[in-house]
């Protein structure tokens, strides 16, 4: 049997703003919780390293 990987796009909506966070990839033997935690940790690190404020729509 061939191992199956699942790739799911993940978005986050806060108020009226929605942004794509990335893709959650889950492989054979992976648990959803730890995989999601790793992806969100990577997103948090990217947010912390971003020096600008506000979105691309001019809001802060």
Describe this structure in words.
The chain has about 60 residues and is of the alpha+beta class. Helices cover about 30% and strands about 30% of the residues. It contains one helix and two strands; from the N terminus they run ββα. The protein has one helix at about 30-50; strands at about 5-15, 15-25. A two-stranded antiparallel sheet has the order 1-2. Strand 1 and strand 2 form a beta hairpin. The model has no long low-confidence stretch (mean pLDDT about 85).
Number of β-strand runs: 2
**Averaged pLDDT:** 83
What portion of residues belong to β-strands?
25-35%
Largest sheet: 2 strands, antiparallel
Regions with little confidence, pLDDT below 50 for 5+ residues: none
- Along the chain, the helix and strand elements come as EEH
Overall 3D form:
elongated
Strand order of the largest sheet: 1-2
Please identify the structural class as seen in this structure. alpha+beta
- Helix % is 25-40%
Number of helical regions: 1
Distance between termini? 50 Å
User: Rg, please?
Assistant: 15 Å
Give the topology.
Blueprint: E1 6-14, E2 17-26, H1 32-49
Antiparallel strand pairs: 1-2
Key attributes of the depicted protein:
single chain, 60 residues, alpha+beta, two-stranded antiparallel ribbon, elongated
How would you briefly describe this protein structure?
This protein has 60 residues and is an alpha+beta fold. The chain is 30% helix and 32% strand.
């Amino acid at each position: 049997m061939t191992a199956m990987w699942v790739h799911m796009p993940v978005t986050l909506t806060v108020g009226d703003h929605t942004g794509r966070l990335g893709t959650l990839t889950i492989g054979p033997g992976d648990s959803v919780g730890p995989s999601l935690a790793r992806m969100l940790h990577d997103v948090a690190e990217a947010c912390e390293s971003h020096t600008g404020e506000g979105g691309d729509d001019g809001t802060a």
